[in-house]
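call fold target=AraC family transcriptional regulator
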Amino acid sequence: MHLADGTRPYRVRVCGTAPVVSAGPFGIATDLGLEALSNADTIVVPARNDVTAPTPDGVIEALQAAHARGARIASICAGAFTLAEAGILDGKRATTHWLAADLFRQMYPDVRLDADVLYVDEGQVLTSAGASAGLDLCLHMVTCDHGTAVAAEAARVAVAPLHRDGGQAQYVIRNRQRTEAGLGEMLAWIEHNAHRELSLEDLAVQASTSVRSLNRRFRAETGQTPMQWLTGVRVRHAQQLLECSADSVEWIGREVGFGSPANFREQFRRLTGVSPLAYRNTFRARSA
């Protein structure tokens, strides 16, 4: 794509420490070595497969030098680990893929990690969550550089929704932690019965324990109350139906166990950051 004056908005080059760098099962040919980072205006650091593996020689130093001279640096997904290793996220707000959030906090406690958003713009340094959030971040940078019209054209070419705000949730309901066998059976029961009208007392009876004991076990093993867990399961089931069915939002809310459309919308927005309808429209736009 081109700007109104016929020029290209960016000149994109792929840099690395070798002629071909690994990206999961794929190999990506590089145009230039790390020396190209010395005069790049924007540097985008991709995700990495093993965030505990040593970073290739020269990468950290090149990023530190680029940051010191004022280059804009962005990371996609677990690429935030590379930026954190370079020290350029210290004291800053950042995000990464939610699956890697706990490890990130352990490794880099000086970074203010927010794992509940799509991307974070700290000015010179930007970070995104999972792969699709990386596209959102890139479109955000295009908007900042060249305006909404150019970003809209880029989104059209990429078959992507133009605007998903960085503060929007990652659409992930985190209720799949590993638990002990006893509670694991209870969680499986909730998974298959979440559509029913269930009270805390009903859950305690099913678990053959007291309400107090059930609350204590849930908090110890999941960090949530039983009813919070149940709500998360229902919202996750609703997400699946919103993505793949044409049923009405009201019907889906009832089907997954919410007593009223208002409660469904409230709980869905609380856990995902968007309304059920906005969530559905986003996924329809992606599949169009």
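return ok
Residues 226-244 form the longest helix (19 residues). The chain has two domains: 20-158, 181-287.
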